[in-house]
């Protein structure tokens, strides 16, 4: 049997971690994998997470199974964080999943279970795992235009034209709730409303992947689009990740939500989500979910977490503004102003794999081959070095 297995292509983002480690040069700069790092290059455990873990250690009296959907208190807390009061709680079916990736995977499986003919539309570009999982599940896919490498912004006309021309009832449109990965370019609320209008005209169903709530414009601002969509479409899937905004990457903490305008559908939706959990791993992991629940339900911990997250967000925003200003100074043009407009952890520079490779070879700068940079990999001292390298490479 094993003789039938073949080498699988490596994840290009994860492969970069190894390449960076193996580079002996001092002064190398890691702008690869999407993990937050502070100015010292450390991915810290957040204060509220430490406090919650202490509390859990002291108070937890059993580690027996939770439920197939995970702890209901976790779902309640996360539904509140993501959706606010955009919909009634009774309209939302929700299950804990191993990370946002688990939620994405289960969402696609739910689509396949409900409508094997559904096509999933994704932005060009999108997080490579989206496409990889869809292909693995044998689902039909189609991309829609999204990034305009001339302006560094969203090609909104192209996006709407592609959706209008191709969507039919039952198709699923995958959207990033905020902080688009890999580009950093996002729709504004007016544009979101236009997308929702197209969805409702065509009968296509949105699926929102929200993995960076709190990294863009703030916890509520980053959820605004998702909340608008939830309140204005008949059906919506949401895959949420706690990896970044709680800094609990390895705890594998996510939530899959199925929102229906018709609350009567929620019981069957909930059963379907729990069924999928059971088919794949029975009970979802609990430790990260318990940390999140402990923080979100304790006013002092929640306030401290939100404050630390806000520092993280503002720090990244400051770095992008500094980078845009430095490039403005070096080039005497506004060509790179888009870097200051992007939001979240990433920006796509919009250059060729050859120039990305040149910056790695000449300056020890590691960005993903599609020219995605993790802004959190910078600090105030390395921003000018990166800006100079971008100019020297002739980007
Ligand atoms: N979706 C997007 C767009 C992401 O960038 C990520 C990566 O972190 C995830 C989902 C899932 O992350 P995780 O499975 O670590 O929670
Ligand atoms: O895009 C990123 O860098 C993050 C982390 O298979 C990540 O989302 C990267 C690759 C992967 C899983 C997570």
From TrEMBL:
<dbReference type="GO" id="GO:0033585">
    <property type="term" value="P:L-phenylalanine biosynthetic process from chorismate via phenylpyruvate"/>
</dbReference>
<dbReference type="GO" id="GO:0005829">
    <property type="term" value="C:cytosol"/>
</dbReference>
<keyword id="KW-0032">Aminotransferase</keyword>
<comment type="subunit">
    <text>Homodimer.</text>
</comment>
<protein>
    <submittedName>
        <fullName>Aminotransferase class I/II-fold pyridoxal phosphate-dependent enzyme</fullName>
    </submittedName>
</protein>
<comment type="similarity">
    <text>Belongs to the class-I pyridoxal-phosphate-dependent aminotransferase family.</text>
</comment>
<dbReference type="InterPro" id="IPR015421">
    <property type="entry name" value="PyrdxlP-dep_Trfase_major"/>
</dbReference>
<dbReference type="InterPro" id="IPR015424">
    <property type="entry name" value="PyrdxlP-dep_Trfase"/>
</dbReference>
<dbReference type="GO" id="GO:0004838">
    <property type="term" value="F:L-tyrosine-2-oxoglutarate transaminase activity"/>
</dbReference>
<dbReference type="GO" id="GO:0004069">
    <property type="term" value="F:L-aspartate:2-oxoglutarate aminotransferase activity"/>
</dbReference>
<dbReference type="GO" id="GO:0030170">
    <property type="term" value="F:pyridoxal phosphate binding"/>
</dbReference>
<dbReference type="Pfam" id="PF00155">
    <property type="entry name" value="Aminotran_1_2"/>
</dbReference>
<dbReference type="InterPro" id="IPR004839">
    <property type="entry name" value="Aminotransferase_I/II_large"/>
</dbReference>
<dbReference type="GO" id="GO:0042802">
    <property type="term" value="F:identical protein binding"/>
</dbReference>
<keyword id="KW-0808">Transferase</keyword>
<feature type="domain" description="Aminotransferase class I/classII large">
    <location>
        <begin position="28"/>
        <end position="390"/>
    </location>
</feature>
<keyword id="KW-0663">Pyridoxal phosphate</keyword>
<dbReference type="InterPro" id="IPR015422">
    <property type="entry name" value="PyrdxlP-dep_Trfase_small"/>
</dbReference>
<dbReference type="InterPro" id="IPR000796">
    <property type="entry name" value="Asp_trans"/>
</dbReference>
